[in-house]
Structures are given as structure tokens and as C-alpha cells.
Amino acid sequence: MRQEPLLQAKEVDKIYPVGGHDFYALKNLSFTLNRGEFAGLIGPSGSGKTTLLNLLGALDTPNRGTIELLGEKLSHLSANKQALFRRLHISFIFQTYNLLPLYSVFENVELPLILLKLEPKERKKRVHEALEWLSLMDKAQAKPSQLSGGQAQRVAIARAMVKNPEIILADEPTANLDSEASHGILKTLRQINEEKGATFLFSTHDDKVIGYLKRKITLTDGQIVHDLSLPEPLKKR
Amino acid sequence: MRLWALLFFFCLTGLPLAAEPTAAEILRRLDQNQLYPTLFIESTMIIQGRKGQRRLRSQSWSQGREKSFIRYLSPPRERGTSMLKLKDQLWLYSPQADRTIAIAGHMLRQPIMGSDLSYEDMMERTSLVKNYQATKLDNEVIQGAGSWVLELKAKQAGLAYPKQRIWVDPKKIAATKVELYGSRGKLLKRVTIQSFIQTPTGWYPSDLTYKDMLK
Amino acid sequence: MIRFLLKGLLRDRHRSLFPLLVISLGVALLVLFQAWLQGALYGTLSNQAHFRTGHVKLLTRGAWAENQSSSLDLALSQVETLKNELATSYPDLNFFPRLRFGGLLDVPDAKGETRSQSPILGFGLELFNHKQEIQAFHLQEGLAQGRLPQGPGEILLTLDLAEKLQLTLGEKATLISNDPNGGMVIHNFTLVGMVRFGIKPLDRASLIGDLKDLQRALGMRKGATEIVGFFKEKGLNRPRALEIKRHFNQNHPLSELSPQMITLSDQDGLDTYLDQIESWMSWILIFFIGLLGFILWNLGLINGLRRYREMGLRLALGEEKKQIYQSLLLEALVLGLVGTFLGTSIGLLPAYYLQEVGLDTTKILTGNQNFMIQNQVHAKIIFSNLWVGFFPGLFAPFLGTLISGLGVFRKNTAQILNQLESI
Do chains A and B have 3 or more beta-carbon pairs under 8 angstroms? Predict the structure, then answer.
């Protein structure tokens, strides 16, 4: 596999003021994520997983250090440029799915494409592809409230993959799902990673998720304590 | 508007007393002096108006407190207009309209012939003793002569003037000034008696001024 | 994107229907209220002018100083001469002498003695030759029984007064009053008609007769208590009235019985009243803008909270904060526009009804009133009814969103997103 760096964090600090003192959520953190990885940030609550994920997703900026996506320093971009970066290259999958309740499954998946100002015809084609891929075609006109948790998260996945992003950031994607649904979702995500080549970075402390990861980056107190890449016997490429 | 009138319905007589009488006694004397078995008066009322003076001549006949009749002699416009009073009722007759009109209610407060005297004032011929409780105030000096001053408070509600003040000449036992007050203590009218004529039983006002203090 | 947002707007009743209802209702109330005030206040003013004050009025200095408009000893003399002078000097107005007096009306029984009696407010108007006075007093429309006076000795009474006196058409009644010198006036009249003005202070006890006839009866051949003047066109012109007043008063002596010109604004505190009408209008407008703004702002704030999920997601999907803010404002603008259109239309309907039918205020207003308030008050639809609603209807929700939207705008993107997870 070609080792093509997609995302790089260099000597990153993230500080929150807490009760008059500086609390280091991340401290001098550096790591690189390559294209096509299926990696996860592992660690207990408060270890800095979500903070890092926000920085990598251009939702927040570090107090020190740089974050580079596709060779561009995110931390040096204006808020509007950051938004543009998110729009074009980054997708999120949330623990609580965050589907818009007023819109149908089709419309929820279509939204990222609308923001990219694609033609309606092109949008329809891509949404249908994504829905078919996730076996959701029969639910296209359903509202989020009519879906099970597993189905809702599949819609969220469809929405994340529909614009073919460079990276998908998933924050505890199975935390609200039962075991069976979780495995279904994780299998699907691995499938997307393997068949479509999408890069994934998780934030999790769920063993089920950890079991599917190809690279496990362990965080404690805002610092990386382990970074373990597994060999890839399953890889069919 | 001011009014000078020669009217004879305040009828006051009296004899000087050696000792100063009580308020009640003075009131009784004033009351007594108002009353004649029969009375005929010919008078002139001078009304001082905005556009000058008007003179009204009239004749009146009365019997006790309860019956009286007035007929106007001049000016020509009023000639023949008459008023009849029986107990507490009053009628007006107009020869021009050939109408007899009862004067009651609202109309009682209207001025007679544009003067400061209302029909109600003319009706007020009741007994002071019966209607008022008198107290004596400090004596005053009026026109160089000492006067007794009485304050009268109504014994019952419904009188036109719930309070009066009367200045009495001790020699004549006749009122020289009367102030009439409303229910809120406001001075409504003032009567001043400038001169008297002597009758066989007392002193009778021959020239008096009647003034509406609100005008 | 606009289509996408519009779909959401239409599907979310909390965002569309409720604010729309609030805006429409607020605007409708404002429009209705404005039309109502316009009708009620200016209607009252117009009556006040016709029945009492004129646009300008001439009376003696004494009568004006002592506030004795119906005192005959302070009446104007040589009225015809004065009227001609006025008509020549100020040809843009019509002038009418009027006699206003108090007295008592006494109705005789078969024996000629008093059957019933009542105090009256008398009006001597130019009835025989001048249609304008009949129009100004609404006599033709107000005639409930009988006819208007056509010859000497004939009078009209208000229906209420005639009923109180139990006087029927054709019967005689005796007026008891005073002449200018205080002399007694006792004069017989025949009742030929009964009128109803629909204005409480007038309906209570008015007697209307021809000016010349009453002048004769009251012993004041060339006198009148006032001469009222009305602009021939377009109603009251305040600056011109003031100009006429100044001009006239400069050229007349200052004695008690010499004539003095006053304007409508000078009388019955109408100057303040006129200013008040204008300031009320603006206060009402400000109040409605404030109230609607407050409600819609709160609605906007609640909406903002309810829509945090949507805002957060849209931020995560790469929409700029500015775009989101603009879309919120656009939404408020669209709602405001539609709401105002709806509200204005809704408000005009009852306003039109009140203009045509009116509202009976006799039960609402009690007590002694000097103002000529009609019993049946009508609204009046004016041009500004069409645009007045846009101030609160459009600006209030816009302003509300502008402020509440700042919350989204100021917050850190990650903060919003984190809150997303906790919702």
C-alpha cells in the first residue's frame, strides 16, 4: 500500500481555561493519517479524543502546532475557508445520527450535495447510489422518526459518503446501537473503506469498534501513548 | 353682576335690651320681626348688568309666611308678569304667552329677571328658629357701630343654605348683613341692608343689596 | 438551498405557521386599530367642528374670556354686518351666525298649567335659506318624526327630549329664558319635528329653531352668540385658520363686547386633542412594533434553540456561519412579508365592517361628555392602513432574528457541535 499522508498533526496543543487555570486537552501531539486508513482514537472519556477529532475536522483551531489536510494548513485558514474545506473534503458521523427530522431520508442525504451546488440530476443519481449501497432505497421517502436506530445511522453514513469525501470522522458511531446493529454498521463502514477507498478516523472506547480497526491510536491525558497498526491479512486489494 | 334692591321681605324689628340676650333669643326676635299678618310692598329692583342698569317696579301682597303675590309694573316687556306663592309652591303667569307655569325643581335655582336673586331665595321665608341652631361669635364693629355676630347651622338637611352668618344691630335688633353659605362651606350670597324705616312694631329694611358671590 | 430551506419552513409549523399567525394577528390588530382611531377621533373632531367649534369661530371677547358661549348678554351684535365683512375678507370660508342659549321648556296641560318641564340647550340656526346649516347639523338625516321648521314659531326637539316631555307633533310648548338684558322671555312654539343626532350631549335636551325666529323671541334682533366659519374645500386647514384668526383679531378692538376670532384648535382643548391624535398614532405604532418585536424575538430565540441541531449539522457539513445567518434573516423577511400581507388583509375586513356599520358606544362611554362623540362610532380606512403594518410586521421579526441569530453567529463552531451531541 502506498503510504500517502492525508492528514498531519504537528506538535498540537489545545488549551481550555478551567477555573482560572489552563487545562491541556491536547499536549504536544503529533501524528499522521494516511489515505485509505481505517483508524481509531482510543481512550477513556476526557483523554482528548473528541477535541482532536474537532481539530482534524476543521471545527476548531489548536492553540499551538499545525494541522494539515491535503497539504493545506487548516489552522491557518479563515473560518470561511475552513467551512469550504469541510464542505468539500470532510464528512462526520455522529453518535446521535443528527438527521434533520423535517426532511425525508432522500433529502437528508441530498443536503451535502446541495451545499456543493450540484445539479439536481447529478444529486439524484448520487443519492440513489448511496442509498442503494446502504440498502435504503425503500426508505427514501421515509422521515427519520420512522426509522430504527440502525437505519438512522445508515442514513447518516449515506449522507457522509455521498460527496465522496477525503476523510470521514466518526465520533462513537455505535454508542446508541445494540450489538447486532453495531456490527452491521461497522461491517458496512469497513466495506466502504475497502471498496471505495474512503479514509476513516474514529473516536471510540467501544470494544466492538476497536475490533474492526486497522490502526489503534491510544490517547491518555491529551497525549498519544500507543500507535499500533495491524498487519492486513484480510485486505483484498 | 351686582344688585341693589329695595325689597321688604327681610322684616326686622326689635327693642334695645338692657342685658345682652342669648343667640337663641336673638334668633327668636329676628324671626318674630319677619312676620306681619298682612303686608303690601311697592318696590324697585335695580339690576346692574353688563349692558347697563335695568329697573323693575313691582307690587307685592303677602299674608303670613305662606301666601304672597307679586305683579310687575314695568318695564313694558315685563308688565303684567306675576308670581304666586302658596306654601312651598310657586307659579309664574305671563300675559304674552298667556301661560301659567309652575316653578319647580331646576327652575328654582334660576335668577329672577336676570338678578342675583333666585326663585329659591324668594321662597325662603321659613322660620330661622325652626330650621337653624345659632351660636354667638365675637362681636364686630361695622360702620362704627358694634354688631352681634351669629352663626347659624341647619338642623336638618335639604335647606338651600346649610350655614348662615348674620350681623345684628344691637340697638334695632335687626340684621345689617347676612351671608349665605353652601353645603361645602362656600360663600354663595351676601345681603347687606343699608337703611331701615321704622314701623309701629320695629325696623324694616328699605334699601338692601343682594349679591351672588359666585358671579 | 433556498428551496431546501423553504421545504423545512413549510413543514415546521413552529417556524412558519406560528410566527405567521403572530405577525398576521399583530398587523391585523394594528390596521384595525388605526382605522378605528382614525374614524373615531377624526369623526369626533368633525362633529365637534360642525356642532360646536366651526373651523373658525367668532364670538365676543367677553364670552370667550368667561367661557360663556351661550350667554346672551355677551352675544355679538350687528351680526349681518360682521358676516358680510367676514365673507368679503375670507372668501374661502362659509360663515353662519348661530344662537346658542339655555332655558326651560314648559308643556301645558288642557288648563294651560304646567304638565311637564325640562331644561333645554337651544340652537338658533339659519334654517330657512341655508341648506349648509341643515347639513352641518345633520338635520335631514336625523329627522325621526315630522318635518323641518318652515315658518316662524316652529321648532325641532330631540327625540329624547320630546319623549321626556311627552310632547307630540303639532303641540305647543313654552320656552322660558332670558333676553340679553336678563329680562324674562316666555314664548310659545309649536313642535314640528323630532331629530336624533346620535350624539349623547346633544340628544339629551336640544331645541333647534330658525335663527331669525329665535332672535325675535329672545329680544336680540341683530344678535347671535357666535358666527362659525367652515372651509369651503377639504375641511380644516390649521395654518390658514390661524392666519385668518391673527388677521381678524389685529383689526378689531379689544373691548368686552367686540368680536374675537378663535380657531377649532383653541376650543375645548382641541389643540391638545389634535396633537394627541397624532402622538397617539405614533405611540400605538411604537407599542405594536415593540410588542410584536418582543414576541417574535422570543419566538426567534426559542426557534434558535430548537434549531441548534440543524445549525450545528449545517456547520459541520461546511456551510458558512454567514450563510446560515443570512438564511435565518431571509426566512424572517419572507415570514414578515407574507404575515404583513395576510395581516393587512385580515385587518381591513373588520375595519371595513366598522366603517360601514359602526359600533354602538353608548354602553361603553358613560357620564357627562363635552365631546361630540357619536353613539355609533365608525372606523375610517385610510391609505396608510395599507403600509403601516409593514413596520412591525416586517421589521420586528427581522430585528428579533437579527439579535437572536447573533447567538449562533458568535459561538464557536465546535461548541455548537458539542451541544449537538448533548441535545
Answer: no
